[in-house]
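--- STAGE predict ---
source: upstream dedup step, 1 unique chain passed
mode: sequence only
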Amino acid sequence: MKKGTVTVFMIFLVVFAVILIPISGCGLVGNRSVDGNINGTEELEPVEISEYEGTKLGSVNDFKENSINGPQQVDVETYQLKITGLVENPKNYTYDEVISKNQHYKKVVRLDCVEGWSVTILWEGLLVKDLLAEVNPLPNSKVVIFHAYDGYTTSLPIDYIMNKNIIMAYKMNELTLPPERGFPFQLVAESKWGYKWIKWIAEIELSDDVNYRGFWESRGYSNSADLDKSFTER
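--- STAGE serialize ---
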């Protein structure tokens, strides 16, 4: 074979190899998704966890439905969280703004209901005090009143909110809160009876009214709602 012919033949082999390698089976493994598509990723549904750092967790399904008007269906596209009352800078936030602007925290906390049942959950959310820091509560602010989409309200002392690192949760057991559990946000009012764990939070109001009573508190439930005391104690 002449030198020129050999050169042409070698070039042909190199070009053939370059074409062949990408279409071999091994060349597709790294880019094939679980459904067989190339260069795609199939997102699977999240799974609720049942244990966290050695602590056995309850389930989203362990809660009993006891809201005053049934589960609320909140449209995340139009949702606004209002922070009002005795503050220097009232704010309105979209759901995405609340999630993206604040540090996230996780905490295992048990909810105890006055009906006699309890559930231990891994909650994930943001600190209420971080939200309040952005609006600058006035010196005479004594009480934080939470308003829900269904008209439910409850209140807690501002010192409790600031000193206890109270979370406003948007996830439970690694799942986004379902509507029946309070989407978009539920208060994790640790050390308090369940009626303080307000769901579907739509507004946070700062007030100086230490005598304010929410939905159940105005019907005879304890306003302090401390777990180590009866919820009927006045």
